[in-house]
Amino acid sequence: MSADKVLIVEDDSSIGMVVRSALEAEGIEVDVCESASARDAALAGNRYDLMLTDVVLKDRDGISSLEDVIAQWPDMPIIIMSAQNTLDTAVRASEINAFEYFPKPFDLDELVLAVKQGIEKRKADSQSESSTLLEATMPMVGRSPAMQDVYRMVARLLRNDLTALILGESGTGKELVAEAIHNLGHRKTGPFVAVNMAAIPSELIEAELFGHEKGAFTGAVGQGIGRFEQAQGGTLFLDEIGDMPYHAQTRLLRTLQSGTISRIGGKASIRLDVRIIAATNQDLEALIAEGKFREDLYYRLNVVPVHLPPLRARPEDIGLLTRHFLGLAASEGLPTKQIDEDAISRLTQMPWRGNVRELKNFVYRLTLTAREDCISEATVLQISGPGEAEPAISGAACSFEAAVGQFMIEQRQRGHGRERIYARALAAFEKPLLQSIMQQARGNQLQAAAMLGINRNTLRKKLNDYGLVGNKLGETRR
Question: What sequence ranges are listed for the domain Response regulatory (predicted)?
Fold first, then answer.
């Protein structure tokens, strides 16, 4: 694999030499030039993963002369360095969408770190740009922002063996994501072994995972090779990890820590070469609080979390998914069908509590039972079972649910514990709720209190606490 390559454009040769030495010490290949014309010549003959440039160059301004560079190499991150430490310089760097801006003098370690991050971002963006390949291979379908986040995370996992924890409701496609990470990654030539923890009796799960020697327990008439050994050189997918018995969690933790296993009844230690991907539809942090899941195992598994959105959080993908499943059904010998836009609109309004899996099953049912070649809204209503055709929760509710989920993710990312979640959530969501209600009530506190179902005095206190009493809400004191 070729080394990452960076271009430094700096008219101060001493600074250029210092930065070059620091980057080369990190295994990065570096070219240095001192003018915009030399920069353009270097770019014409080479492909760089990132460019560092000073603002003041010998022949031209380092920022204003970047317009053509950005047009020709839009995917190349640019880091601006400048001794002109003014707000105007920072604003100009922001206007050209510079990856980072460093006023001189700068911390060399911070600059090197930013260069590494810029290179990794370019690689990740390059992977996400090929989302068509991901969609075709996963097979997962969707172009919503929520699914693009999933694709980007999958792309970042392809070149390493970091442990991933896939989180999502039942039917969102957790195993498909695990298969994509394996099939598109560097372990694709090895085996992909999936184990559903909820499907294995508690007393057999350790033998299933780690294997056993002959006579290790009643019924062990021969040696058994466990799933870890079966996955050597490939990927082991531990589905429904939240259902794993507590006693087996301890052994799994020890395996992840040591990178070795020993079969039940055996003494030999077997070195593992296996990537671990786990998945669950449960709240593992809640299970930890209940004493049902080991906290140390959770942190071992949750190295890279991948959050799969429920279908109701990406309704714009339902049309794509429906047509995709119609094509799959036809390829499996079912009648070839089309579907009209009114029918798609109706499908988009349905709740899909079983997520993508439920939608797929319903589309197959439509394909088999619909009489017309082009499925209509009337057929959707006719074939859907009781409650299926009821509208899903409103877009506002979907947005609120998504906001709560994002709030919880941000809390964990910021290192907040599980304490005082209710108070923090109220502080985040109560103020915008009160603002919205007061606007709808045109500042009338009595009407707003009635809409909220609370006492007017309670409302007044909350408005005062949040500083929402004033003309900006058009408030009246009736």
Answer: 5-119
Alpha carbons 126 and 50: distance in angstroms, whole number: 13
Q: What is the pLDDT of residues 118-139, one digit of tens each?
A: 888 887 776 554 444 444 444 5
What is the distance between the alpha carbons of residues 220 and 226, in angstroms, rounded to a whole number?
A: 13
406-439 residue pLDDT tens: 566 555 555 555 556 676 677 677 877 888 788 7
Helical spans, DSSP H, in 145-245: 145-157, 174-184, 205-210, 227-230
Query: If you classify domain 420-473 with CATH, what class do you get?
Result: mainly alpha
Q: Residue 472: is its pLDDT beyond 90?
A: no
Cα three-residue angle 263-240-159, rounded to 5 degrees: 80
For 238, residues 6+ apart whose C-beta sits below 8 A from its C-beta are 195, 197, 244, 252, 276, 277, 278, 279
pTM: 0.57
Q: Where are the domains of the chain?
A: 5-127, 142-307, 311-383, 420-473
Q: pLDDT of 172-213, one tens digit each? A: 999 999 998 998 888 999 999 999 999 998 888 988 899 888
Burial class (CB within 10 angstroms; exposed 0-12, middle 13-18, buried 19+) of 232 = middle
CB contact at 8 A, 23 and 115? yes
Structure tokens at 303: 């190295």
Fold of 311-383: Helicase, Ruva Protein; domain 3 (1.10.8)
- What is the pLDDT averaged over residues 438-466? 80
Q: At what angle do helices 318-331 and 341-349 cross, to 10 degrees?
A: 110
Structure tokens at 91: 């604003």
